[in-house]
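Suppose a colleague, Dr. K., hands you the sequence of a protein chain of 220 amino acids and asks what its three-dimensional shape might be. Before reaching for any lab equipment, you can write down a predicted structure in token form. Begin with the sequence itself:
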Amino acid sequence: MTYDKKELNKILKELTGKTASRISESKREELARTSSNAVVLSWLADDEYYKVLWGVAENPSTPIEILVKLAGNEAYGVRQGVARNHSTPAEILVKLAGDQELIVRCDVAENPSTPIEILVKLAGDGEKYVRFSVASNPSTPVEVLVKLAGDGEEYVRRGVARNPSTPTEVLIKLVGDESLDVRLRASKHPHSRTDIRLIFALYGSGELDDEELESRVNAL
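The predicted structure, expressed as tokens, is then:
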């Protein structure tokens, strides 16, 4: 995205009291994360300072053409910023879902804007951290959460147990998980105070005593 330097300096003087050449790295980084001005963001997208590019990549106001450019940046942290940006278009997230860097794929998997078909694909990723990110994403479809609730990695099942979108049927299964941490997370899920089936499942597994059972049932 091109911009006029005179227009840029005019905008920057209004925002900071300085022209482009006199603005510090720290101030550019701040602008990268907070500005909603397309001209300013276009200028910052060419910055040589890594943290500035990262800020532009994460900024929800960054124009799509700039996100496309930054999605191909050699620095994985910049691509990571694009991957976690909720304004990033689906076609860019599809590309980043195949990134060689684990942390980039994790951020795609956590992004609620990621297309369902990509979440389904990432649910089969060989890295447990990517599957955990899918398991934790509230946009992940129920059938994928059901699958991940049976994942061989405790870490992944923990993600399902903490997902606000996980249905009661899956949580009831996780209440009986071999992992104490998974059981505890399932017992603290919001549904554990609103769904009578889950409340009694927790009582039956020993996670709730008589007093807590009575308290939760009476609160319904």
